[in-house]
Amino acid sequence: MIEIEHPGAFTTVQDLGRAGYGHLGVSRSGAADRDSLKLANRLVGNPEADAGLECTLDGPRVRLHRDCTVAITGAPVDIAALDGIEVSMNCAFPAPAGSVLQIGRAVAGVRSYVAFSGGIAAAPILGSRSWDMRGEIGPPPVAAGAWLALGDPTSPPPAVDAVPVPSIERAVTVTVSAGPRASWFTAEARRGLRTERFVATGDANRIGVKLRGPALTRQRPDELRSEGMVPGAVQVPPSGQPIVLLADVPTTGGYPVIAVVAECDLGKIAQLRPGDEIRFAFDGTWGREVAA
Amino acid sequence: MSRLTAHPVGDRALLVEVADNAAAQRLFRFAHRTLDLEDVIPGHQTVLMVGRDRAPRLEDLGSWESDEEPARADAFPVVLSVTYGGPDLDTVAERCRMSTEELVRRHLAAEYTVAFIGFAPGFPYLIGGDPLIQPPRRTEPRTRVPAGALAIAGEYTSIYSKAGPGGWQIVGSSDALLFDPTRESPALLQPGDTVRLVEGPA
To answer: What CATH architecture is B78-199?
Structure first.
């Protein structure tokens, strides 16, 4: 078991989500920065899909009640300490029963991940232990005094000390493909998405991140009938300011999607802080849509 | 065979457009039953298909129109008991130029179909309502609509499956539990289900 002594700002249990229930209105959910959770799990010898903690901006203080191996990944934090002694990120370290793990504030990015050997063994709902903040499904955000069970470790941690990870930058470029409704937008809007800089706003959570930039205007004023959405969809409400959808994506939406962020770059979106800059790089699909 | 329009959606999804909701239902059932996909999400006139490693191709859908549908075990309408009297009931009746009694009578008389589920887990978009009852959304959405609110917006009727913000016109309530993740079948309604509303005890 682990005991939450202090929950931090918003700390949730996340695994890789519950895909397969979209037709019932249930989001995929799961870690917003999936690559970071997978890495944390690999470092402690867990299957990649095990559940860990997703910390948001300010991390928790956790007392361990069993010997285990721990790894912290994702957004770098100002303090990462075990019983007051600093521990490194992106590497596995042993944590004996009774020790206290403290995770401080993110100094870059937003979301840090903590994996424990054996994984967090909260009761799965629809096949996942992830908290979905939109659908309110899964174990609720951790609170002070909560105890979380750990599973049995399946294999020893791999013999690596640390792994190199790309640093989290305040200006990022993400690859996008043309969205299903790209042709609903003016040529200026499509060009603007490619050439202009956008800025992340504070209007951001696990559902999506609102960006600020040149207004993306439509050439087709028709009302869009609700259609299926995916994490990474760049949807454009009437204000023209795009929203990039994340893990707790509404399964259907009525705003046209101009572009879709490549899955391998979704973690960069999940780590955007207010004021961070974002540019969109287009893959080969864009030219075809513009010509249409 | 009618032509399908398809748009790639990111690395491994395909959004297929069809003529109407009936076609979307048919394509959804075909894809859900016969293709190995991560997710299949019907919309009003679309079906989004999310593949496991790559997007499905239009060729994979070759036989969807001629596909023999197995008999549905739950072909009977799902009956939901509702009570009228929400905060927007009189406004909606006025807007539809009928008495409140007439609105209730017409709203109860319709046989609805679950066009798709979205917005929240288990939140059904019911179509097939009386064509005279098509109020717009509220200009100011409410910050909190209680679970069970019976609501109308445009051609859609729904029951809020959980509490939360919402912009639909509230005309009543229902105690139907539309979504319970601990049930073996968490959503009470599936896309394509037929629904009848009956006036029940308050």
So the answer is: Beta Barrel (2.40)
Q: Which residue is closest to A227 within chain B, CA to CA? A: B43
Where do runs of H (alpha helix) occur along chain B? 21-34, 89-95, 100-109
Q: Rounded to an integer, what distance in angstroms lies between the CA atom of residue B129 and that of residue B154?
A: 10
Mutation to test the A interface, candidates B39, B127, B184, most A Cβ within 10 Å: B39
- Measured in angstroms, the CA of B32 and the nearest CA of chain A are apart by 9
Q: Give dist(CA A269, CA A278) in Å, integer.
A: 9
| H or E stretch at B54 | none
Task: Look at the pTM and tell me if it is higher than 0.90.
Answer: yes
B41–A261 C-beta distance less than 8 A: no
Q: Closest CB to B46: pick one of A177, A228, A260.
A: A228
Q: Domains in chain A, please, with CATH?
A: 2-148 (no CATH), 171-291 (2.40.100.10)
pLDDT digits (tens, 9 = 90+) for B176-200: 999 998 888 899 999 999 999 999 8
C-alpha distances in Å from residue A105, one per residue of A8, A14, B98: 9, 19, 59
Distance CA A83, CA A5 (A): 13
What would the CATH number be for the domain defined by B5-61? 3.30.1360.40
**Would an 8 Å CB–CB cutoff place B167 in contact with chain A?**
no
